[in-house]
């Protein structure tokens, strides 16, 4: 059966009159680009088509499967190119930046992440990185360890969590080494900057383990790392303006003040919903003060410019949580749609995409509830309720 299907798909005439009408573009284009990858006679066309398949949003279970396949195929090409294979498709891949630089910038860096997750010993890489003298830590390996742990693949989960625990031990030892007055392997500036970098990643790593362990020590270490990084930032504008650190602080405040929905998985890796006791604090907060805090939080998230270690899907989710769906419908809708339609490539992307879909479901339910509650106000005029409360904001603007 599989062979028959493949033979049928390979018929060149099958796709000659594929019209990009709305339904086909929205619901079949990912599949279409996959087929074009297999059938394209030119290597550059193959690469562009598989990249365009990955670029399409993941909106359904079928999309999830097709996206995974497309990513797998693209990673195969990237692996050949990265390992300096001289095949024609690798030569074409080298020229992609000249043909479609925007598409290349969106996808290739994340394929690089996948390549390292699959082929590199992250523990050994971190050991080597921390052993260098007179050197500012390269953060990429720390990011790889964190992003690998934010995975929905249960087979990889335990291995990735053990990597995080091992990395925390190494980083704690490195902090002790940096604080040792007899250490002469770094300048004062290098020592301070390395401490700041380590504290940022201890926030990330202890945050992951806080969501997935009964050990309260991870929560304490999370808070401790946050305070240490904040103290260092007081005397340095570079640290204070570090986008990654600003993001971590805004995310922390977001998770303290804006409680998860009752149905949300509080143990989701990297979710940082650390304590249910926050509900008690929230009840006594003045609503006006809370509104001011949310505005400040949103402005900090909005000002972030560098995204190297920040997941774009999660960034839109945090912005979404800062808004009140019933009062700021268009903005809230915009953020959750951006989260859902963001490119999905890494394990972390897949996890955050699922979270975005869950929140979008809640958003729609909330809108429906608002519509029902407003029936009397609108004199049971369904069309008016639909236009004001249920209609796609993008259609309203047309």
Automatic annotation (TrEMBL):
Superkingdom of origin = Eukaryota
Q: What's the protein here called?
A: Uncharacterized protein
Q: Which organism is it from?
A: Aphis glycines
